Amino acid sequence: MQESNTTHQWSAKLTKDNTVFQGEHLALNEAVKYVTTLKTNLPVTIFVDYRANIQASPSPKITNRTAREISEILLENSHIKISWIKARVGYFGNEAADSLANSATESNDVQLNIKLPKCHAKNIFRKDMMKQWQS
């Protein structure tokens, strides 16, 4: 990282049923959208500590709406790059991002209503049905 100053912060609270993948992708999507508002063609690298973000976004068979949006923005803005960094090793921005995520989790703010992945929703439904059946 060239500079260790923060130019923009964003966080949101998700429901307890949303996945880490959804939260990480939502944050990456917000970061990519923010960079497009800067109106610059200078190279910009967004560092992520969740490899699935990098692996899902460029896939041609994207079914996740947020990942597809990230991919489209990156295709239109070749100066924006995504790079993986190791988590929990003291990178300035990474520590700040983790702190924002923890604050959002513990806050009483309104939760974002993000559609659950079908497989995750089915698992929740099955668990609820088993609970009802056993009680």
What are the SSEs and their pairings?
Elements: H1 20-37, E1 44-48, H2 51-56, H3 65-76, E2 80-84, H4 92-106, H5 118-134
Parallel strand pairs: 1-2
Describe the 3D structure.
This is RNase H type-1 domain-containing protein. GO terms for molecular function: nucleic acid binding; RNA-DNA hybrid ribonuclease activity. This protein has 135 residues and is mostly helical. The protein has a single domain (20-134), classed as Nucleotidyltransferase, domain 5 (2-Layer Sandwich). It has helices at 20-37, 51-56, 65-76, 92-106, 118-134, and strands at 44-48, 80-84. It has a two-stranded parallel sheet with strand order 1-2. Helix 1 (20-37) packs parallel to helix 3 (65-76). The chain is globular, with a radius of gyration of 17 Å. The model has no long low-confidence stretch (mean pLDDT 77).
Task: Give structural attributes.
5 helices, 2 strands, Nucleotidyltransferase, domain 5, single chain, two-stranded parallel ribbon, mainly alpha, 135 residues
* Element string (H = helix, E = strand): HEHHEHH
The counted number of beta strands is 2
Proportion of helical residues: 40-55%
Largest sheet: 2 strands, parallel
How much of the sequence lies in strands comes to 5-15%
Radius of gyration: 17 Å
Organism: Araneus ventricosus (Orbweaver spider)
Domain RNase H type-1: 1-106
Protein name: RNase H type-1 domain-containing protein
GO molecular function: nucleic acid binding; RNA-DNA hybrid ribonuclease activity
